[in-house]
Specification:
By secondary structure, the chain is α+β, with helices and mostly antiparallel strands. The chain has 4 domains: about 1-105, no CATH class; about 170-265, no CATH class; about 275-400, Glutaredoxin (3-Layer(aba) Sandwich), CATH 3.40.30; about 405-523, no CATH class. Helix content is about 55%, strand content about 10%. It contains 20 helices and 8 strands. An 8-stranded mixed β-sheet has the order 1-7-8-6-5-4-3-2.
Protein backbone atom coordinates (compact mmCIF):
# COMPACT_ATOMS: atom_id res chain seq x y z
CA UNK A 1 0.00 0.00 0.00
CA UNK A 2 2.81 2.42 0.87
CA UNK A 3 4.57 1.70 -2.44
CA UNK A 4 1.32 2.24 -4.32
CA UNK A 5 0.69 5.53 -2.52
CA UNK A 6 4.24 6.71 -3.22
CA UNK A 7 3.93 5.75 -6.88
CA UNK A 8 0.61 7.58 -7.12
CA UNK A 9 2.16 10.72 -5.71
CA UNK A 10 5.06 10.49 -8.16
CA UNK A 11 2.67 10.21 -11.11
CA UNK A 12 0.53 13.03 -9.78
CA UNK A 13 3.62 15.17 -9.27
CA UNK A 14 4.37 14.89 -12.95
CA UNK A 15 0.92 16.26 -13.70
CA UNK A 16 1.38 19.09 -11.20
CA UNK A 17 5.06 19.75 -11.85
CA UNK A 18 6.38 23.07 -10.64
CA UNK A 19 9.69 24.75 -9.94
CA UNK A 20 11.40 26.01 -6.82
CA UNK A 21 13.99 25.08 -4.21
CA UNK A 22 13.53 21.78 -2.41
CA UNK A 23 12.01 22.33 1.06
CA UNK A 24 13.56 20.82 4.18
CA UNK A 25 11.87 17.81 5.87
CA UNK A 26 10.46 20.07 8.60
CA UNK A 27 9.10 22.50 6.01
CA UNK A 28 7.48 19.56 4.21
CA UNK A 29 5.79 18.35 7.39
CA UNK A 30 4.44 21.79 8.19
CA UNK A 31 3.24 22.31 4.61
CA UNK A 32 1.33 19.02 4.67
CA UNK A 33 -0.21 19.70 8.09
CA UNK A 34 -1.31 23.20 7.05
CA UNK A 35 -2.76 21.89 3.78
CA UNK A 36 -4.74 19.16 5.56
CA UNK A 37 -6.18 21.62 8.09
CA UNK A 38 -7.07 24.20 5.44
CA UNK A 39 -8.55 21.66 3.01
CA UNK A 40 -10.70 20.12 5.72
CA UNK A 41 -12.21 23.53 6.46
CA UNK A 42 -12.94 24.07 2.76
CA UNK A 43 -14.61 20.67 2.48
CA UNK A 44 -16.68 21.28 5.60
CA UNK A 45 -17.81 24.56 3.99
CA UNK A 46 -18.77 22.74 0.76
CA UNK A 47 -15.90 24.32 -1.21
CA UNK A 48 -14.13 21.31 -2.74
CA UNK A 49 -12.44 23.31 -5.53
CA UNK A 50 -10.59 25.39 -2.95
CA UNK A 51 -9.69 22.22 -1.03
CA UNK A 52 -8.23 20.66 -4.17
CA UNK A 53 -6.17 23.78 -4.89
CA UNK A 54 -4.71 23.84 -1.37
CA UNK A 55 -3.82 20.14 -1.41
CA UNK A 56 -2.33 20.17 -4.91
CA UNK A 57 0.01 22.96 -3.85
CA UNK A 58 1.40 20.70 -1.10
CA UNK A 59 1.40 17.39 -2.98
CA UNK A 60 5.17 17.56 -3.55
CA UNK A 61 5.67 17.45 0.21
CA UNK A 62 3.23 14.60 0.91
CA UNK A 63 5.77 11.75 0.64
CA UNK A 64 3.01 9.13 0.64
CA UNK A 65 1.17 10.55 3.70
CA UNK A 66 -1.97 8.38 3.84
CA UNK A 67 -4.12 11.00 5.55
CA UNK A 68 -3.12 13.60 2.95
CA UNK A 69 -3.81 11.27 0.01
CA UNK A 70 -7.16 10.17 1.45
CA UNK A 71 -8.18 13.80 1.85
CA UNK A 72 -7.06 14.63 -1.70
CA UNK A 73 -9.15 11.73 -3.03
CA UNK A 74 -12.10 12.97 -1.01
CA UNK A 75 -11.62 16.49 -2.39
CA UNK A 76 -11.48 15.21 -5.99
CA UNK A 77 -14.64 13.13 -5.51
CA UNK A 78 -16.47 16.05 -3.88
CA UNK A 79 -15.41 18.38 -6.68
CA UNK A 80 -16.60 15.90 -9.32
CA UNK A 81 -19.91 15.57 -7.51
CA UNK A 82 -20.28 19.37 -7.42
CA UNK A 83 -19.24 19.79 -11.06
CA UNK A 84 -21.70 17.10 -12.10
CA UNK A 85 -24.60 19.04 -10.55
CA UNK A 86 -23.68 22.30 -12.33
CA UNK A 87 -26.07 23.46 -15.11
CA UNK A 88 -23.16 23.81 -17.57
CA UNK A 89 -20.36 21.61 -16.27
CA UNK A 90 -16.79 22.36 -17.33
CA UNK A 91 -16.01 19.29 -19.44
CA UNK A 92 -12.25 19.92 -19.44
CA UNK A 93 -12.15 20.33 -15.66
CA UNK A 94 -14.25 17.20 -15.22
CA UNK A 95 -11.90 15.15 -17.38
CA UNK A 96 -8.79 16.52 -15.65
CA UNK A 97 -10.18 15.82 -12.18
CA UNK A 98 -11.21 12.29 -13.15
CA UNK A 99 -7.70 11.58 -14.45
CA UNK A 100 -6.08 12.80 -11.24
CA UNK A 101 -8.53 10.86 -9.09
CA UNK A 102 -7.73 7.73 -11.10
CA UNK A 103 -4.01 8.25 -10.44
CA UNK A 104 -4.80 8.04 -6.72
CA UNK A 105 -6.91 4.91 -7.12
CA UNK A 106 -10.21 6.64 -6.50
CA UNK A 107 -13.55 6.07 -8.19
CA UNK A 108 -15.81 8.83 -9.51
CA UNK A 109 -19.01 9.51 -7.54
CA UNK A 110 -22.45 8.30 -8.44
CA UNK A 111 -24.51 10.48 -10.79
CA UNK A 112 -25.49 13.83 -9.34
CA UNK A 113 -29.14 12.88 -9.03
CA UNK A 114 -28.40 9.70 -7.07
CA UNK A 115 -29.13 9.91 -3.33
CA UNK A 116 -26.20 9.85 -0.92
CA UNK A 117 -25.77 6.49 0.81
CA UNK A 118 -26.11 6.79 4.58
CA UNK A 119 -24.24 4.24 6.72
CA UNK A 120 -26.78 1.94 8.34
CA UNK A 121 -25.16 2.33 11.75
CA UNK A 122 -25.24 6.13 11.64
CA UNK A 123 -27.88 8.06 13.53
CA UNK A 124 -27.54 11.71 12.62
CA UNK A 125 -27.91 14.38 15.30
CA UNK A 126 -31.56 15.26 15.96
CA UNK A 127 -33.29 17.22 13.20
CA UNK A 128 -34.65 19.75 13.56
CA UNK A 129 -32.15 20.59 16.30
CA UNK A 130 -33.22 22.94 19.07
CA UNK A 131 -30.18 25.11 19.64
CA UNK A 132 -29.01 25.37 23.23
CA UNK A 133 -29.47 28.70 24.94
CA UNK A 134 -26.53 30.63 23.57
CA UNK A 135 -27.68 34.13 24.34
CA UNK A 136 -25.01 36.56 23.04
CA UNK A 137 -25.07 38.30 26.40
CA UNK A 138 -23.54 35.21 28.04
CA UNK A 139 -20.00 36.27 27.23
CA UNK A 140 -18.39 35.93 30.64
CA UNK A 141 -17.39 32.28 31.13
CA UNK A 142 -18.57 30.57 34.30
CA UNK A 143 -15.92 28.99 36.54
CA UNK A 144 -14.56 25.77 35.03
CA UNK A 145 -13.90 22.63 37.09
CA UNK A 146 -10.76 22.80 39.22
CA UNK A 147 -7.89 22.90 36.79
CA UNK A 148 -4.23 23.64 36.45
CA UNK A 149 -3.24 25.50 33.30
CA UNK A 150 0.38 26.07 32.48
CA UNK A 151 1.13 29.26 30.57
CA UNK A 152 4.86 28.54 30.42
CA UNK A 153 4.92 29.67 26.84
CA UNK A 154 7.38 32.51 27.46
CA UNK A 155 9.97 31.63 24.82
CA UNK A 156 12.58 33.60 26.74
CA UNK A 157 14.69 34.80 23.84
CA UNK A 158 17.65 36.80 25.23
CA UNK A 159 17.81 38.64 21.90
CA UNK A 160 15.16 40.98 23.23
CA UNK A 161 11.78 39.35 22.55
CA UNK A 162 9.24 40.68 25.03
CA UNK A 163 7.28 37.89 26.70
CA UNK A 164 3.53 38.21 26.98
CA UNK A 165 2.46 39.82 30.24
CA UNK A 166 -1.11 38.47 30.18
CA UNK A 167 -1.07 34.83 29.06
CA UNK A 168 -4.88 34.54 28.99
CA UNK A 169 -6.52 37.40 27.08
CA UNK A 170 -10.30 37.38 27.38
CA UNK A 171 -12.12 36.36 24.17
CA UNK A 172 -13.42 39.30 22.17
CA UNK A 173 -17.17 39.80 22.52
CA UNK A 174 -17.43 40.07 18.75
CA UNK A 175 -15.90 36.60 18.30
CA UNK A 176 -18.43 35.03 20.66
CA UNK A 177 -21.26 36.92 18.98
CA UNK A 178 -20.10 35.90 15.51
CA UNK A 179 -19.78 32.25 16.53
CA UNK A 180 -23.32 32.23 17.90
CA UNK A 181 -24.64 34.00 14.80
CA UNK A 182 -22.96 31.47 12.51
CA UNK A 183 -24.41 28.63 14.57
CA UNK A 184 -27.94 29.99 14.39
CA UNK A 185 -27.57 30.38 10.60
CA UNK A 186 -26.51 26.72 10.47
CA UNK A 187 -23.09 27.70 9.12
CA UNK A 188 -21.56 25.01 11.30
CA UNK A 189 -18.11 25.04 9.71
CA UNK A 190 -17.68 28.75 10.43
CA UNK A 191 -19.14 28.40 13.92
CA UNK A 192 -16.72 25.53 14.61
CA UNK A 193 -13.79 27.68 13.48
CA UNK A 194 -14.85 30.64 15.61
CA UNK A 195 -15.53 28.58 18.73
CA UNK A 196 -12.13 26.98 18.20
CA UNK A 197 -10.36 30.35 18.18
CA UNK A 198 -11.85 31.07 21.60
CA UNK A 199 -11.14 27.69 23.19
CA UNK A 200 -13.37 25.55 25.40
CA UNK A 201 -11.95 26.98 28.64
CA UNK A 202 -13.53 30.36 27.86
CA UNK A 203 -16.98 29.13 26.79
CA UNK A 204 -20.12 28.72 28.88
CA UNK A 205 -21.69 25.23 29.06
CA UNK A 206 -24.36 26.33 26.56
CA UNK A 207 -21.73 27.57 24.13
CA UNK A 208 -19.72 24.35 24.54
CA UNK A 209 -22.85 22.37 23.65
CA UNK A 210 -23.34 24.46 20.51
CA UNK A 211 -19.72 23.89 19.54
CA UNK A 212 -20.09 20.15 20.16
CA UNK A 213 -23.14 20.03 17.89
CA UNK A 214 -21.17 21.75 15.10
CA UNK A 215 -18.39 19.18 15.30
CA UNK A 216 -20.76 16.20 15.47
CA UNK A 217 -22.83 17.47 12.53
CA UNK A 218 -19.73 18.09 10.38
CA UNK A 219 -18.34 14.67 11.28
CA UNK A 220 -21.64 13.00 10.37
CA UNK A 221 -21.55 14.72 6.99
CA UNK A 222 -18.01 13.41 6.40
CA UNK A 223 -18.99 9.85 7.26
CA UNK A 224 -22.04 10.11 4.98
CA UNK A 225 -19.99 11.46 2.07
CA UNK A 226 -19.46 9.03 -0.84
CA UNK A 227 -15.71 9.60 -0.70
CA UNK A 228 -15.37 8.71 2.99
CA UNK A 229 -12.56 6.19 3.48
CA UNK A 230 -10.87 4.80 6.59
CA UNK A 231 -8.55 7.78 7.04
CA UNK A 232 -11.37 10.31 6.74
CA UNK A 233 -13.54 8.29 9.10
CA UNK A 234 -10.72 8.13 11.66
CA UNK A 235 -10.37 11.92 11.58
CA UNK A 236 -14.16 12.26 11.97
CA UNK A 237 -14.11 9.85 14.92
CA UNK A 238 -11.38 11.89 16.59
CA UNK A 239 -13.40 15.08 16.12
CA UNK A 240 -16.54 13.52 17.64
CA UNK A 241 -14.53 12.05 20.50
CA UNK A 242 -13.28 15.56 21.35
CA UNK A 243 -16.78 17.01 20.91
CA UNK A 244 -18.30 14.60 23.43
CA UNK A 245 -16.05 16.02 26.14
CA UNK A 246 -17.76 19.40 25.66
CA UNK A 247 -21.26 18.11 26.45
CA UNK A 248 -22.38 18.29 30.08
CA UNK A 249 -26.19 18.32 30.17
CA UNK A 250 -27.67 17.35 26.80
CA UNK A 251 -28.44 13.63 26.85
CA UNK A 252 -29.99 13.60 23.35
CA UNK A 253 -26.95 15.20 21.71
CA UNK A 254 -24.65 12.93 23.71
CA UNK A 255 -26.48 9.85 22.42
CA UNK A 256 -26.39 11.12 18.84
CA UNK A 257 -22.71 11.88 19.14
CA UNK A 258 -21.97 8.39 20.38
CA UNK A 259 -23.88 6.92 17.45
CA UNK A 260 -21.86 9.00 14.99
CA UNK A 261 -18.66 8.00 16.78
CA UNK A 262 -19.58 4.32 16.54
CA UNK A 263 -20.27 4.59 12.81
CA UNK A 264 -17.05 6.50 12.17
CA UNK A 265 -15.00 4.02 14.16
CA UNK A 266 -16.53 1.14 12.19
CA UNK A 267 -15.41 2.72 8.92
CA UNK A 268 -11.98 3.54 10.36
CA UNK A 269 -11.38 0.01 11.58
CA UNK A 270 -8.55 -0.63 9.11
CA UNK A 271 -7.06 2.86 9.15
CA UNK A 272 -3.81 2.08 10.91
CA UNK A 273 -1.43 -0.67 12.05
CA UNK A 274 -0.31 -1.66 15.52
CA UNK A 275 3.38 -1.15 16.29
CA UNK A 276 5.71 -1.30 19.26
CA UNK A 277 7.11 1.87 20.80
CA UNK A 278 10.83 1.53 20.96
CA UNK A 279 12.16 1.34 24.49
CA UNK A 280 8.79 1.57 26.26
CA UNK A 281 7.43 -1.94 25.86
CA UNK A 282 3.94 -0.43 25.41
CA UNK A 283 1.97 -0.89 22.20
CA UNK A 284 1.48 2.09 19.93
CA UNK A 285 -1.83 2.03 18.07
CA UNK A 286 -2.08 4.32 15.06
CA UNK A 287 -5.58 5.16 13.81
CA UNK A 288 -5.75 7.90 11.21
CA UNK A 289 -3.50 10.65 12.55
CA UNK A 290 -3.76 9.58 16.24
CA UNK A 291 -1.14 7.40 17.95
CA UNK A 292 -1.82 5.75 21.31
CA UNK A 293 0.53 4.40 23.98
CA UNK A 294 -0.17 3.19 27.50
CA UNK A 295 -0.47 6.74 28.84
CA UNK A 296 -0.80 9.04 25.83
CA UNK A 297 -2.86 9.75 22.75
CA UNK A 298 -0.88 11.86 20.28
CA UNK A 299 -2.69 13.77 17.54
CA UNK A 300 -0.28 15.00 14.89
CA UNK A 301 -0.43 15.58 11.14
CA UNK A 302 2.92 13.84 10.64
CA UNK A 303 3.13 10.14 11.49
CA UNK A 304 6.90 10.27 11.97
CA UNK A 305 6.69 13.26 14.31
CA UNK A 306 3.79 11.64 16.14
CA UNK A 307 5.87 8.50 16.72
CA UNK A 308 8.74 10.60 18.05
CA UNK A 309 6.48 12.56 20.38
CA UNK A 310 4.72 9.44 21.72
CA UNK A 311 7.99 7.71 22.59
CA UNK A 312 9.46 10.88 24.11
CA UNK A 313 6.29 11.44 26.15
CA UNK A 314 6.42 7.96 27.73
CA UNK A 315 10.13 8.38 28.54
CA UNK A 316 9.64 11.91 29.94
CA UNK A 317 6.71 10.87 32.12
CA UNK A 318 8.80 8.14 33.74
CA UNK A 319 11.78 10.47 34.24
CA UNK A 320 9.66 13.24 35.77
CA UNK A 321 7.99 10.91 38.27
CA UNK A 322 11.32 9.38 39.28
CA UNK A 323 13.00 12.77 39.60
CA UNK A 324 10.50 14.27 42.02
CA UNK A 325 8.94 11.31 43.78
CA UNK A 326 9.61 7.76 42.59
CA UNK A 327 8.44 5.32 39.91
CA UNK A 328 4.93 5.93 38.50
CA UNK A 329 2.29 4.03 40.45
CA UNK A 330 0.30 2.99 37.38
CA UNK A 331 -0.97 4.08 33.98
CA UNK A 332 -2.98 7.25 33.47
CA UNK A 333 -6.73 6.98 33.13
CA UNK A 334 -7.79 9.02 31.31
CA UNK A 335 -4.78 9.10 29.02
CA UNK A 336 -3.03 12.38 28.40
CA UNK A 337 -3.85 13.71 24.94
CA UNK A 338 -1.02 15.54 23.18
CA UNK A 339 -2.07 17.70 20.24
CA UNK A 340 0.75 18.94 18.00
CA UNK A 341 -0.30 21.98 15.95
CA UNK A 342 1.50 22.69 12.69
CA UNK A 343 2.35 26.35 13.33
CA UNK A 344 2.16 28.98 16.03
CA UNK A 345 -0.82 30.52 14.24
CA UNK A 346 -2.63 27.19 14.07
CA UNK A 347 -1.89 26.64 17.76
CA UNK A 348 -3.31 30.05 18.67
CA UNK A 349 -6.47 29.56 16.58
CA UNK A 350 -7.18 26.11 17.96
CA UNK A 351 -6.54 26.88 21.64
CA UNK A 352 -7.21 30.58 22.08
CA UNK A 353 -3.74 31.01 23.57
CA UNK A 354 -1.23 33.62 22.35
CA UNK A 355 0.87 32.59 19.35
CA UNK A 356 4.01 33.54 21.33
CA UNK A 357 3.51 30.48 23.54
CA UNK A 358 5.10 27.19 22.53
CA UNK A 359 2.60 25.08 24.46
CA UNK A 360 0.44 24.68 27.53
CA UNK A 361 -0.92 21.89 29.71
CA UNK A 362 -4.44 21.44 31.06
CA UNK A 363 -5.54 19.07 33.81
CA UNK A 364 -9.17 19.09 34.89
CA UNK A 365 -10.32 17.63 38.20
CA UNK A 366 -13.99 16.95 38.95
CA UNK A 367 -15.05 15.70 42.40
CA UNK A 368 -11.46 14.88 43.27
CA UNK A 369 -10.90 12.80 40.11
CA UNK A 370 -8.86 13.73 37.05
CA UNK A 371 -11.23 13.90 34.08
CA UNK A 372 -8.88 15.35 31.46
CA UNK A 373 -5.16 15.53 30.79
CA UNK A 374 -4.08 17.44 27.72
CA UNK A 375 -0.97 19.09 26.31
CA UNK A 376 -1.11 21.41 23.29
CA UNK A 377 2.14 22.18 21.47
CA UNK A 378 3.20 23.58 18.14
CA UNK A 379 5.75 21.87 15.99
CA UNK A 380 8.85 23.98 16.47
CA UNK A 381 12.31 22.39 16.45
CA UNK A 382 12.64 22.36 20.27
CA UNK A 383 9.38 20.52 20.83
CA UNK A 384 10.74 17.21 22.15
CA UNK A 385 13.70 18.62 24.08
CA UNK A 386 11.95 21.49 25.83
CA UNK A 387 8.23 22.13 25.35
CA UNK A 388 7.08 18.52 25.82
CA UNK A 389 8.91 17.72 29.11
CA UNK A 390 8.09 21.19 30.44
CA UNK A 391 4.36 20.76 29.94
CA UNK A 392 4.36 17.12 31.05
CA UNK A 393 5.93 18.26 34.31
CA UNK A 394 2.76 20.27 34.99
CA UNK A 395 0.64 17.20 34.29
CA UNK A 396 2.73 14.94 36.55
CA UNK A 397 2.76 17.51 39.36
CA UNK A 398 -1.04 17.31 39.46
CA UNK A 399 -0.64 13.67 40.47
CA UNK A 400 2.05 14.45 43.04
CA UNK A 401 0.07 17.32 44.60
CA UNK A 402 -3.47 16.00 44.28
CA UNK A 403 -4.93 17.99 47.19
CA UNK A 404 -3.51 21.42 46.47
CA UNK A 405 -1.09 22.61 43.75
CA UNK A 406 2.25 24.16 44.74
CA UNK A 407 2.71 27.93 44.35
CA UNK A 408 3.24 29.32 40.85
CA UNK A 409 6.94 30.03 41.30
CA UNK A 410 7.59 26.39 42.24
CA UNK A 411 5.44 24.97 39.44
CA UNK A 412 7.11 27.10 36.79
CA UNK A 413 10.60 26.58 38.15
CA UNK A 414 10.21 22.80 38.21
CA UNK A 415 8.77 22.83 34.68
CA UNK A 416 11.58 24.95 33.26
CA UNK A 417 14.20 22.65 34.78
CA UNK A 418 12.73 19.78 32.74
CA UNK A 419 14.16 21.35 29.60
CA UNK A 420 17.51 20.79 27.95
CA UNK A 421 20.72 22.14 29.54
CA UNK A 422 20.88 24.73 26.76
CA UNK A 423 17.36 25.95 27.53
CA UNK A 424 18.03 26.14 31.27
CA UNK A 425 21.23 28.05 30.50
CA UNK A 426 19.24 30.68 28.60
CA UNK A 427 17.13 31.32 31.71
CA UNK A 428 20.25 31.52 33.86
CA UNK A 429 21.91 34.04 31.54
CA UNK A 430 18.76 36.13 31.26
CA UNK A 431 18.42 36.28 35.06
CA UNK A 432 21.50 38.49 35.16
CA UNK A 433 19.89 41.02 32.82
CA UNK A 434 16.64 40.87 34.81
CA UNK A 435 18.49 41.60 38.05
CA UNK A 436 20.28 44.51 36.43
CA UNK A 437 17.01 45.97 35.13
CA UNK A 438 15.11 45.58 38.40
CA UNK A 439 12.90 42.64 37.39
CA UNK A 440 13.94 40.40 40.28
CA UNK A 441 11.64 40.45 43.31
CA UNK A 442 12.48 39.87 46.96
CA UNK A 443 11.79 36.20 47.62
CA UNK A 444 9.04 37.09 50.11
CA UNK A 445 7.19 38.86 47.28
CA UNK A 446 7.84 35.97 44.87
CA UNK A 447 6.51 33.43 47.36
CA UNK A 448 3.38 35.51 48.01
CA UNK A 449 2.30 35.50 44.34
CA UNK A 450 -0.93 33.53 43.92
CA UNK A 451 -0.96 33.85 40.14
CA UNK A 452 1.23 35.01 37.30
CA UNK A 453 2.35 38.59 37.80
CA UNK A 454 1.07 41.37 35.56
CA UNK A 455 4.57 42.76 35.10
CA UNK A 456 8.20 41.62 35.22
CA UNK A 457 7.10 38.28 33.76
CA UNK A 458 10.53 37.37 32.36
CA UNK A 459 12.09 38.04 35.74
CA UNK A 460 9.43 35.85 37.33
CA UNK A 461 10.27 32.85 35.15
CA UNK A 462 14.04 33.27 35.46
CA UNK A 463 13.97 33.82 39.21
CA UNK A 464 11.58 30.92 39.79
CA UNK A 465 13.84 28.52 37.91
CA UNK A 466 16.92 29.79 39.71
CA UNK A 467 15.43 29.50 43.22
CA UNK A 468 14.17 25.97 42.57
CA UNK A 469 17.56 24.96 41.17
CA UNK A 470 19.35 26.48 44.17
CA UNK A 471 17.22 24.54 46.67
CA UNK A 472 17.64 21.34 44.66
CA UNK A 473 21.42 21.72 44.80
CA UNK A 474 21.20 21.94 48.59
CA UNK A 475 19.34 18.66 49.20
CA UNK A 476 17.95 17.21 45.96
CA UNK A 477 14.65 17.05 44.09
CA UNK A 478 12.69 14.78 46.41
CA UNK A 479 13.56 16.88 49.45
CA UNK A 480 12.35 19.94 47.56
CA UNK A 481 8.99 18.21 47.03
CA UNK A 482 8.81 17.52 50.78
CA UNK A 483 9.61 21.18 51.42
CA UNK A 484 6.65 22.22 49.25
CA UNK A 485 4.34 19.88 51.15
CA UNK A 486 5.64 21.20 54.47
CA UNK A 487 5.10 24.77 53.26
CA UNK A 488 1.43 23.98 52.65
CA UNK A 489 1.10 22.59 56.20
CA UNK A 490 3.32 24.86 58.29
CA UNK A 491 4.12 27.91 56.15
CA UNK A 492 7.23 28.70 54.10
CA UNK A 493 9.45 29.94 56.95
CA UNK A 494 8.86 26.85 59.11
CA UNK A 495 9.31 24.55 56.10
CA UNK A 496 12.66 26.19 55.24
CA UNK A 497 13.88 25.61 58.75
CA UNK A 498 12.64 22.00 58.87
CA UNK A 499 14.08 20.92 55.53
CA UNK A 500 17.09 23.18 54.95
CA UNK A 501 18.01 24.64 58.32
CA UNK A 502 17.43 28.13 56.89
CA UNK A 503 15.86 30.57 59.32
CA UNK A 504 13.12 32.12 57.22
CA UNK A 505 12.65 33.68 53.80
CA UNK A 506 14.99 36.69 54.33
CA UNK A 507 17.88 34.34 55.12
CA UNK A 508 17.14 32.31 51.98
CA UNK A 509 16.94 35.52 49.94
CA UNK A 510 20.39 36.60 51.06
CA UNK A 511 21.93 33.15 50.51
CA UNK A 512 20.36 32.75 47.07
CA UNK A 513 21.56 36.18 45.91
CA UNK A 514 25.10 35.45 47.09
CA UNK A 515 25.14 32.15 45.22
CA UNK A 516 23.26 33.07 42.04
CA UNK A 517 23.54 36.80 41.47
CA UNK A 518 26.73 38.13 43.03
CA UNK A 519 29.15 35.82 41.14
CA UNK A 520 27.87 37.25 37.86
CA UNK A 521 28.29 40.90 38.75
CA UNK A 522 30.95 42.87 37.00
CA UNK A 523 33.54 44.31 39.44
Amino acid sequence: MTRLATASVCVLLCALAGTGADPTPVEKQLAVQNAIASARKHLDSQNPTEAVAVLEQAVASADGNKVFLALLREAYVSELYQLGKAPNPDAERLAQTRRRLALLGGAPPAPADAPKPVPAALTAPPTPFTPPDVNPTLVTPIPAPASIESPTGDRLLPSGDTPVSQPFPAPARTTITNAIAAFKKENFAEADRLFGTIGAAKLTPEQKTAWAYCRIKLAADRVNAPACDAGTAAAAAQSVDEALTLITDNAKLLASGRAVLKAAQAKAGSAGPVRQAGGTGAPVVAVGDAIETANFRVVCGSRDLGDTVSKAAEASRKQIFERWSGPPSGVWQPKCEIVVHATADAYAKATGKPAEMTGHATVRITNGRVTERRVDLWADTALVDNALPRELTHVVLTDLFSDKPPPKWALEGMAILAGSPEEIGRYTRTLTRCAREGEVRPLAALFDLNDFPADKITGFYCQSASVVEYLIKLKGERNFKIFLSDAQRYGTSRALERQYGIEGTPALDAAWKRACLEPTRTP
